[in-house]
Amino acid sequence: MTTPSKAANRPGGEWLLAGHPVARIGYGAMQLVERPGLPPVDADDAIALLHRVVELGITHIDTAEFYGHGTANDLIRRAFGDSDEVVIVSKVGANRVDAPVPLVAAQKPQELRASIEANLRSLGRDRIAVVNLRRADAQPGIIATGDQVVDLDDQLAELAALRDEGLIGAFGLSNVSLEQLQQALPAGIACVQNSYSLVERSGERMLDLCRANDIAWAPFFPLGSAFPGRPKVVEQPAVLAAAQQLGVTPSQVGLAWMLQHAPNTLLIAGTSSIAHLEQNAAIGDITLSDDLMAQLDAVSADGKQTSIG
Ligand SMILES: NC(=O)c1ccc[n+]([C@@H]2O[C@H](COP(=O)([O-])OP(=O)(O)OC[C@H]3O[C@@H](n4cnc5c(N)ncnc54)[C@H](OP(=O)(O)O)[C@@H]3O)[C@@H](O)[C@H]2O)c1
Q1: Percentage of the chain lying above the pLDDT 90 cut
Q2: How confident is the model at residue 307 (pLDDT cuts 50, 70, 90)?
Q3: Which amino acids bring their CB within 6 angstroms of ligand 1?
Q4: pLDDT the model gives residue 5
Q5: CA-CA distance, 207 to 289, in Å (whole number)?
Q6: DSSP track, 59-119
Q7: Where do the domains of the chain lie, and which CATH numbers do they carry?
Q8: What is the number of other CB atoms lying within 10 angstroms of the CB of residue 225?
Protein backbone atom coordinates (compact mmCIF):
# COMPACT_ATOMS: atom_id res chain seq x y z
CA MET A 1 0.00 0.00 0.00
CA THR A 2 1.15 3.53 -0.72
CA THR A 3 2.32 5.33 2.38
CA PRO A 4 1.88 9.08 2.22
CA SER A 5 5.15 10.91 2.64
CA LYS A 6 5.47 14.15 4.53
CA ALA A 7 6.89 16.13 1.63
CA ALA A 8 7.73 19.55 3.03
CA ASN A 9 5.86 21.54 0.41
CA ARG A 10 2.82 19.26 0.19
CA PRO A 11 0.21 20.13 2.81
CA GLY A 12 -0.87 16.98 4.61
CA GLY A 13 1.80 14.87 2.92
CA GLU A 14 1.63 13.36 -0.51
CA TRP A 15 -0.32 10.74 -2.45
CA LEU A 16 0.23 9.37 -5.93
CA LEU A 17 -3.06 10.05 -7.70
CA ALA A 18 -3.18 8.35 -11.09
CA GLY A 19 0.59 8.70 -11.27
CA HIS A 20 0.61 12.36 -10.18
CA PRO A 21 2.12 13.25 -6.80
CA VAL A 22 -0.52 15.41 -5.09
CA ALA A 23 -0.79 17.00 -1.69
CA ARG A 24 -3.31 15.11 0.45
CA ILE A 25 -4.99 18.43 1.12
CA GLY A 26 -6.69 19.42 -2.09
CA TYR A 27 -9.41 21.88 -3.03
CA GLY A 28 -13.01 21.50 -4.25
CA ALA A 29 -14.03 24.29 -6.62
CA MET A 30 -17.82 23.99 -6.30
CA GLN A 31 -18.12 26.74 -3.68
CA LEU A 32 -16.74 29.30 -6.14
CA VAL A 33 -19.88 29.08 -8.24
CA GLU A 34 -22.53 27.08 -6.34
CA ARG A 35 -23.09 28.56 -2.91
CA PRO A 36 -26.57 27.86 -1.55
CA GLY A 37 -28.35 31.19 -1.10
CA LEU A 38 -25.33 33.22 -2.20
CA PRO A 39 -24.17 34.54 -5.58
CA PRO A 40 -21.09 33.09 -7.27
CA VAL A 41 -17.78 34.51 -6.11
CA ASP A 42 -16.62 37.50 -8.18
CA ALA A 43 -14.40 36.16 -10.99
CA ASP A 44 -11.29 38.15 -10.02
CA ASP A 45 -11.66 37.07 -6.40
CA ALA A 46 -12.14 33.47 -7.48
CA ILE A 47 -8.99 33.56 -9.60
CA ALA A 48 -7.06 35.13 -6.71
CA LEU A 49 -8.27 32.28 -4.49
CA LEU A 50 -7.18 29.69 -7.06
CA HIS A 51 -3.74 31.28 -7.24
CA ARG A 52 -3.56 31.08 -3.45
CA VAL A 53 -4.46 27.38 -3.67
CA VAL A 54 -1.25 26.70 -5.57
CA GLU A 55 0.84 29.07 -3.45
CA LEU A 56 -0.19 26.98 -0.45
CA GLY A 57 1.15 23.85 -2.13
CA ILE A 58 -2.26 22.42 -2.99
CA THR A 59 -2.00 20.54 -6.27
CA HIS A 60 -5.31 18.66 -6.59
CA ILE A 61 -8.41 20.58 -7.68
CA ASP A 62 -11.83 18.98 -7.95
CA THR A 63 -14.29 20.44 -10.45
CA ALA A 64 -17.08 19.65 -12.92
CA GLU A 65 -18.40 21.12 -16.14
CA PHE A 66 -21.79 21.28 -14.44
CA TYR A 67 -20.54 23.59 -11.69
CA GLY A 68 -22.06 26.85 -12.85
CA HIS A 69 -22.48 25.86 -16.50
CA GLY A 70 -18.73 25.57 -17.08
CA THR A 71 -17.92 28.61 -14.93
CA ALA A 72 -15.76 26.72 -12.42
CA ASN A 73 -13.75 25.18 -15.25
CA ASP A 74 -13.49 28.54 -16.95
CA LEU A 75 -12.03 30.08 -13.79
CA ILE A 76 -9.55 27.23 -13.46
CA ARG A 77 -8.45 27.70 -17.08
CA ARG A 78 -8.05 31.44 -16.54
CA ALA A 79 -6.04 30.84 -13.37
CA PHE A 80 -3.73 28.10 -14.64
CA GLY A 81 -4.01 27.73 -18.42
CA ASP A 82 -3.09 24.16 -19.28
CA SER A 83 -0.29 24.02 -16.71
CA ASP A 84 0.33 20.61 -15.23
CA GLU A 85 1.20 22.33 -11.95
CA VAL A 86 -2.28 21.34 -10.80
CA VAL A 87 -3.91 17.95 -11.15
CA ILE A 88 -7.48 18.47 -12.30
CA VAL A 89 -10.10 15.94 -11.30
CA SER A 90 -13.45 16.48 -12.98
CA LYS A 91 -16.65 14.47 -13.02
CA VAL A 92 -19.30 13.37 -15.48
CA GLY A 93 -22.76 11.86 -15.16
CA ALA A 94 -24.94 14.97 -15.03
CA ASN A 95 -25.61 18.07 -17.09
CA ARG A 96 -26.51 21.54 -15.96
CA VAL A 97 -29.84 22.87 -17.15
CA ASP A 98 -31.71 26.04 -16.25
CA ALA A 99 -35.12 24.78 -15.26
CA PRO A 100 -37.04 23.26 -13.64
CA VAL A 101 -34.10 21.61 -11.83
CA PRO A 102 -30.45 22.63 -11.99
CA LEU A 103 -29.02 19.20 -12.82
CA VAL A 104 -30.21 16.30 -14.96
CA ALA A 105 -28.64 12.87 -15.21
CA ALA A 106 -26.40 12.32 -18.23
CA GLN A 107 -25.34 8.74 -17.63
CA LYS A 108 -25.34 7.21 -21.11
CA PRO A 109 -21.88 6.35 -22.48
CA GLN A 110 -22.18 8.88 -25.32
CA GLU A 111 -23.20 11.52 -22.77
CA LEU A 112 -20.15 10.73 -20.65
CA ARG A 113 -17.99 11.23 -23.74
CA ALA A 114 -19.73 14.50 -24.66
CA SER A 115 -19.29 15.76 -21.10
CA ILE A 116 -15.58 14.95 -21.10
CA GLU A 117 -15.23 16.81 -24.40
CA ALA A 118 -17.05 19.80 -22.87
CA ASN A 119 -14.73 19.66 -19.84
CA LEU A 120 -11.68 19.61 -22.10
CA ARG A 121 -12.95 22.71 -23.93
CA SER A 122 -13.80 24.72 -20.81
CA LEU A 123 -10.60 23.69 -19.03
CA GLY A 124 -8.54 24.40 -22.16
CA ARG A 125 -6.73 21.08 -21.89
CA ASP A 126 -5.96 18.17 -24.21
CA ARG A 127 -6.32 15.72 -21.37
CA ILE A 128 -7.91 15.65 -17.93
CA ALA A 129 -5.81 13.86 -15.31
CA VAL A 130 -8.75 12.07 -13.66
CA VAL A 131 -12.49 11.99 -14.34
CA ASN A 132 -14.97 10.59 -11.85
CA LEU A 133 -18.09 8.83 -13.03
CA ARG A 134 -20.81 10.33 -10.83
CA ARG A 135 -23.53 7.68 -10.54
CA ALA A 136 -27.08 8.74 -9.78
CA ASP A 137 -28.54 5.61 -8.17
CA ALA A 138 -28.98 7.02 -4.68
CA GLN A 139 -29.09 10.21 -2.66
CA PRO A 140 -27.68 12.75 -2.27
CA GLY A 141 -28.59 14.53 -5.48
CA ILE A 142 -30.41 13.47 -8.61
CA ILE A 143 -31.69 9.94 -9.13
CA ALA A 144 -31.52 8.41 -12.60
CA THR A 145 -34.77 7.08 -14.02
CA GLY A 146 -35.90 5.59 -17.33
CA ASP A 147 -33.20 5.36 -19.98
CA GLN A 148 -30.79 7.13 -17.62
CA VAL A 149 -30.49 3.92 -15.60
CA VAL A 150 -27.35 2.71 -17.34
CA ASP A 151 -25.34 -0.43 -16.80
CA LEU A 152 -22.11 0.33 -14.96
CA ASP A 153 -20.05 -1.94 -17.21
CA ASP A 154 -21.15 -0.01 -20.31
CA GLN A 155 -20.00 3.22 -18.66
CA LEU A 156 -16.68 1.71 -17.60
CA ALA A 157 -16.07 0.51 -21.17
CA GLU A 158 -16.59 4.05 -22.49
CA LEU A 159 -14.31 5.55 -19.85
CA ALA A 160 -11.65 2.94 -20.62
CA ALA A 161 -11.91 3.89 -24.32
CA LEU A 162 -11.49 7.57 -23.42
CA ARG A 163 -8.46 6.63 -21.33
CA ASP A 164 -7.00 4.60 -24.21
CA GLU A 165 -7.55 7.59 -26.51
CA GLY A 166 -5.64 9.78 -24.05
CA LEU A 167 -8.46 12.24 -23.39
CA ILE A 168 -8.41 11.29 -19.71
CA GLY A 169 -5.48 9.98 -17.71
CA ALA A 170 -7.52 7.80 -15.39
CA PHE A 171 -10.99 7.51 -13.95
CA GLY A 172 -12.67 7.13 -10.62
CA LEU A 173 -16.16 6.64 -9.24
CA SER A 174 -18.48 8.91 -7.30
CA ASN A 175 -21.61 8.19 -5.31
CA VAL A 176 -21.25 4.43 -5.67
CA SER A 177 -22.04 1.45 -3.49
CA LEU A 178 -19.51 -1.07 -2.21
CA GLU A 179 -20.81 -3.59 -4.74
CA GLN A 180 -20.37 -1.15 -7.61
CA LEU A 181 -16.81 -0.42 -6.56
CA GLN A 182 -16.08 -4.15 -6.39
CA GLN A 183 -17.58 -4.58 -9.86
CA ALA A 184 -15.45 -1.74 -11.24
CA LEU A 185 -12.10 -2.71 -9.69
CA PRO A 186 -10.84 -4.67 -12.73
CA ALA A 187 -11.29 -1.55 -14.89
CA GLY A 188 -8.64 0.27 -12.81
CA ILE A 189 -10.08 2.85 -10.43
CA ALA A 190 -7.93 5.81 -9.37
CA CYS A 191 -10.19 7.30 -6.71
CA VAL A 192 -13.60 7.18 -5.08
CA GLN A 193 -15.59 10.28 -4.23
CA ASN A 194 -18.57 9.58 -2.00
CA SER A 195 -20.20 11.70 0.65
CA TYR A 196 -18.27 11.10 3.86
CA SER A 197 -17.19 13.03 6.92
CA LEU A 198 -17.03 12.84 10.68
CA VAL A 199 -20.84 13.02 10.66
CA GLU A 200 -21.36 10.59 7.78
CA ARG A 201 -19.39 7.43 8.37
CA SER A 202 -21.34 4.74 6.54
CA GLY A 203 -18.67 4.60 3.86
CA GLU A 204 -16.10 3.01 6.19
CA ARG A 205 -16.11 -0.39 4.47
CA MET A 206 -15.61 1.27 1.11
CA LEU A 207 -12.78 3.38 2.50
CA ASP A 208 -11.15 0.14 3.68
CA LEU A 209 -11.60 -1.47 0.26
CA CYS A 210 -10.03 1.58 -1.36
CA ARG A 211 -7.15 1.47 1.08
CA ALA A 212 -6.52 -2.22 0.38
CA ASN A 213 -6.45 -1.49 -3.35
CA ASP A 214 -4.33 1.68 -3.19
CA ILE A 215 -7.28 3.77 -4.34
CA ALA A 216 -7.58 7.36 -3.17
CA TRP A 217 -10.61 8.17 -1.03
CA ALA A 218 -11.48 11.79 -1.86
CA PRO A 219 -14.91 12.34 -0.32
CA PHE A 220 -17.31 15.15 -1.04
CA PHE A 221 -19.07 17.03 1.79
CA PRO A 222 -16.05 16.55 4.15
CA LEU A 223 -17.48 19.25 6.42
CA GLY A 224 -21.09 18.26 5.86
CA SER A 225 -21.55 20.62 2.87
CA ALA A 226 -22.88 24.17 2.59
CA PHE A 227 -26.44 22.89 2.19
CA PRO A 228 -28.79 23.73 5.04
CA GLY A 229 -30.45 20.74 6.68
CA ARG A 230 -27.46 18.42 6.41
CA PRO A 231 -25.52 17.55 9.58
CA LYS A 232 -22.50 19.78 10.04
CA VAL A 233 -19.15 18.64 11.38
CA VAL A 234 -18.60 22.00 13.08
CA GLU A 235 -21.78 21.65 15.17
CA GLN A 236 -20.67 18.49 16.98
CA PRO A 237 -19.87 19.04 20.68
CA ALA A 238 -16.83 16.73 20.53
CA VAL A 239 -15.46 18.74 17.61
CA LEU A 240 -16.01 22.04 19.41
CA ALA A 241 -14.33 20.69 22.55
CA ALA A 242 -11.32 19.40 20.60
CA ALA A 243 -10.99 22.72 18.78
CA GLN A 244 -10.97 24.60 22.05
CA GLN A 245 -8.44 22.22 23.56
CA LEU A 246 -6.07 22.53 20.60
CA GLY A 247 -6.63 26.21 19.84
CA VAL A 248 -7.70 25.51 16.25
CA THR A 249 -11.03 25.89 14.46
CA PRO A 250 -13.79 23.25 14.46
CA SER A 251 -13.45 22.85 10.67
CA GLN A 252 -9.76 22.14 11.12
CA VAL A 253 -10.55 19.44 13.69
CA GLY A 254 -13.02 17.74 11.33
CA LEU A 255 -10.59 17.78 8.43
CA ALA A 256 -7.60 16.76 10.56
CA TRP A 257 -9.61 13.77 11.81
CA MET A 258 -10.20 12.67 8.21
CA LEU A 259 -6.55 13.02 7.27
CA GLN A 260 -5.43 11.05 10.31
CA HIS A 261 -8.19 8.44 10.11
CA ALA A 262 -6.99 6.86 6.86
CA PRO A 263 -3.77 7.33 4.88
CA ASN A 264 -5.51 7.10 1.49
CA THR A 265 -7.84 10.01 2.26
CA LEU A 266 -7.44 13.09 0.08
CA LEU A 267 -9.30 16.20 1.18
CA ILE A 268 -11.23 18.40 -1.23
CA ALA A 269 -12.98 20.73 1.19
CA GLY A 270 -14.73 23.51 -0.70
CA THR A 271 -14.47 27.13 0.26
CA SER A 272 -15.09 30.55 -1.23
CA SER A 273 -12.88 32.21 1.40
CA ILE A 274 -9.10 32.62 1.23
CA ALA A 275 -8.95 32.72 5.02
CA HIS A 276 -10.75 29.36 5.24
CA LEU A 277 -8.57 27.96 2.46
CA GLU A 278 -5.47 28.90 4.46
CA GLN A 279 -6.91 27.25 7.57
CA ASN A 280 -7.68 24.10 5.61
CA ALA A 281 -4.19 24.00 4.11
CA ALA A 282 -2.71 24.22 7.61
CA ILE A 283 -4.35 21.11 9.03
CA GLY A 284 -1.40 18.92 8.07
CA ASP A 285 0.33 20.50 11.06
CA ILE A 286 -2.37 19.34 13.49
CA THR A 287 -1.87 16.05 15.28
CA LEU A 288 -4.81 14.60 17.15
CA SER A 289 -3.93 12.42 20.14
CA ASP A 290 -5.28 8.86 20.36
CA ASP A 291 -7.63 10.09 23.03
CA LEU A 292 -9.03 12.87 20.85
CA MET A 293 -9.30 10.54 17.87
CA ALA A 294 -11.36 8.16 20.00
CA GLN A 295 -13.64 10.97 21.17
CA LEU A 296 -14.13 12.11 17.58
CA ASP A 297 -14.65 8.56 16.35
CA ALA A 298 -17.64 8.38 18.66
CA VAL A 299 -19.34 11.39 17.05
CA SER A 300 -21.42 9.53 14.52
CA ALA A 301 -21.96 6.42 16.60
CA ASP A 302 -25.67 7.22 16.70
CA GLY A 303 -25.94 5.85 13.14
CA LYS A 304 -28.27 8.66 12.13
CA GLN A 305 -26.32 9.62 9.04
CA THR A 306 -27.33 8.42 5.63
CA SER A 307 -25.05 7.43 2.81
CA ILE A 308 -24.87 4.73 0.22
CA GLY A 309 -21.46 3.26 1.01
N1 LIG B 1 -19.17 14.00 -6.50
C2 LIG B 1 -20.17 14.71 -6.05
O3 LIG B 1 -21.33 14.34 -6.19
C4 LIG B 1 -19.91 16.01 -5.34
C5 LIG B 1 -20.98 16.64 -4.68
C6 LIG B 1 -20.73 17.81 -4.00
C7 LIG B 1 -19.45 18.35 -3.96
N8 LIG B 1 -18.43 17.73 -4.62
C9 LIG B 1 -17.04 18.26 -4.54
O10 LIG B 1 -16.64 18.16 -3.19
C11 LIG B 1 -16.14 19.42 -2.73
C12 LIG B 1 -16.39 19.57 -1.24
O13 LIG B 1 -17.78 19.55 -0.94
P14 LIG B 1 -18.59 20.87 -0.62
O15 LIG B 1 -17.83 22.06 -1.01
O16 LIG B 1 -19.95 20.70 -1.20
O17 LIG B 1 -18.80 20.78 0.95
P18 LIG B 1 -17.80 20.87 2.20
O19 LIG B 1 -16.40 20.96 1.74
O20 LIG B 1 -18.19 19.80 3.14
O21 LIG B 1 -18.27 22.23 2.89
C22 LIG B 1 -18.22 23.45 2.24
C23 LIG B 1 -18.71 24.46 3.26
O24 LIG B 1 -17.77 24.52 4.33
C25 LIG B 1 -17.37 25.87 4.52
N26 LIG B 1 -15.95 25.85 4.90
C27 LIG B 1 -14.90 25.35 4.21
N28 LIG B 1 -13.76 25.51 4.90
C29 LIG B 1 -14.09 26.15 6.03
C30 LIG B 1 -13.36 26.62 7.16
N31 LIG B 1 -12.03 26.45 7.25
N32 LIG B 1 -14.03 27.24 8.16
C33 LIG B 1 -15.36 27.41 8.10
N34 LIG B 1 -16.12 26.99 7.07
C35 LIG B 1 -15.48 26.37 6.04
C36 LIG B 1 -17.63 26.59 3.22
O37 LIG B 1 -17.95 27.93 3.45
P38 LIG B 1 -16.96 29.13 2.97
O39 LIG B 1 -17.12 29.22 1.49
O40 LIG B 1 -17.51 30.31 3.69
O41 LIG B 1 -15.60 28.75 3.42
C42 LIG B 1 -18.85 25.84 2.70
O43 LIG B 1 -20.03 26.40 3.25
C44 LIG B 1 -16.91 20.43 -3.59
O45 LIG B 1 -16.32 21.70 -3.57
C46 LIG B 1 -16.91 19.72 -4.92
O47 LIG B 1 -15.69 19.97 -5.60
C48 LIG B 1 -18.64 16.55 -5.29
Answers
A1: 90
A2: very low
A3: 28-31, 62, 91, 134, 141, 174-175, 193, 220-226, 249, 251, 268-273, 276, 279-280
A4: 44
A5: 22
A6: -EEE--TTTTTTHHHHHHHHHHTT-TTSEEEEEESEEE-SSS-SEEE--SHHHHHHHHHHH
A7: 14-229+262-273 (3.20.20.100)
A8: 21
With contact defined as beta carbons under 8 Å apart, do 192 and 183 qualify?
no
| Cβ-based burial of 109 (10 A; exposed 0-12, middle 13-18, buried ≥19) | middle
Work out which ligand 1 atom sits closest to the CA atom of 64: 47
pLDDT tens readout for residues 10-68 = 888 999 999 999 999 999 999 999 999 999 999 999 999 999 999 999 999 999 999 99
> Does the annotation count 67 as an active-site position?
yes
Query: Residue 101's pLDDT is what?
Result: 73
Nearest atom in ligand 1 to 62's CA: 47
Which amino acid is located at 131 in the chain?
A: V
- Among 70, 64, 77, 72, which Cα is nearest to 126's? 77
Amino acid residing at 2: T
User: pTM of the predicted model, to two decimals?
Assistant: 0.95
- Choosing from 61, 174, 221, 252 the residue with most ligand 1 atoms within 8 A of its CB, the one to mutate for a pocket test is 221
Ligand 1 atom at minimum distance from 141 CA: 3
Q: Among 97-106, 182-191, 263-272, 278-287, which is the least confidently predicted range?
A: 97-106
Average pLDDT over the chain, rounded to an integer: 93
> Mind listing the pLDDT tens digit for each residue in 114-164?
999 999 999 999 999 999 999 999 999 999 999 999 999 999 999 999 999
Catalytic residue among 15, 27, 67, 221: 67
